[in-house]
Amino acid sequence: MSKISDKGFVMASFPYRDRDRMLHILTRDHGLISAGARGACSVKSKLRPLSNLFSLCNYEFFYHKERFYVDDGEVIEAFLGISESIEHLTAASFASEVFRDLTRNSPPDQKYFDLWAYTLYEISQSERPVLLSRLSTLRLLAEAGYAPQLERCGSCQRPISSDATFSFQTSGLVCGSRACESASGDSIRLSEGTLALLRHVLTAPFNRLYRFTVTADVEKNASQFLDLYLCEKMEKDYKMLDLLEHPFDMDLSGLKRNCD
User: Fold this and answer.
1) Nearest 10 degrees: Cα torsion 148, 154, 160, 164
2) Which domains does the chain have, with CATH numbers?
3) Do residues 214 and 131 make contact, with C-beta atoms less than 8 angstroms apart?
4) Residue 159, class by beta-carbon neighbours within 10 Å (0-12 exposed, 13-18 middle, 19+ buried)?
5) Is residue 97 within 8 Å of residue 54, measured between CB atoms?
């Protein structure tokens, strides 16, 4: 048995056995780990606040028989304000699901921890949390090596600076030439404003990542693209944001932050 100290965010928290919790924690030094929190559902448990969804904590783990267990720790930031708005909670939950899926089998890398830290803070403060959550998935994919080509035509490599078509077949823009357009396959039209926003998200330092202003038209166009691009790259149809459009058709149990 070994002791491990690390800082981490609770990305998911599930009931386990009687009064335990199973946590998915995105740590700074060890990547995404699964850790048991024994007795965390008990009101008097010292581990209860350490198992709340989205909390940032300093953790003390012990590692035994290839499993992590939370032994102790302290809460740095609970982000309790997120749970006061269904829009903010849904946005954070959606982004968390994507981050978990991508980092689950990835080598530990602090850039994922740092990106999530900026993303969660900005979602908690933003008036457009859903847009930020979608944009965070684009930067996450880019950091993992799945960035779209948004500067040049994916076929002829001609620079593109105005409105353009994005081809999911080539994972890049397509210029207006007949030869390039005929090979574009499934595609979506991106406005000049949308391209500017996406390029900013792909290149900005994390501390400037969410510093922008957009019109409603750009937000709509960008959101359509981001949902399609995420689905194509992750090979998964994410449903969490459907909650905001069809709230009575969704299971809300996954959004609960505390133990029953």
Assistant:
1) -80
2) 2-77 (2.40.50.140), 80-147+188-255 (1.20.1440.120)
3) yes
4) exposed
5) no
Q: Distance (Å, rounded) from C-alpha 179 to C-alpha 207?
A: 41
- Encode the chain (260 residues) as per-residue pLDDT tens digits: 689 999 999 999 999 888 999 999 999 999 999 999 999 998 889 999 999 999 999 999 998 888 899 999 999 999 998 988 999 999 999 999 999 999 998 999 999 999 999 999 999 999 999 999 999 999 999 999 999 999 888 777 888 878 888 989 888 888 777 777 766 668 899 999 999 999 999 999 999 999 999 999 999 999 999 999 999 999 999 999 988 876 555 555 555 555 44
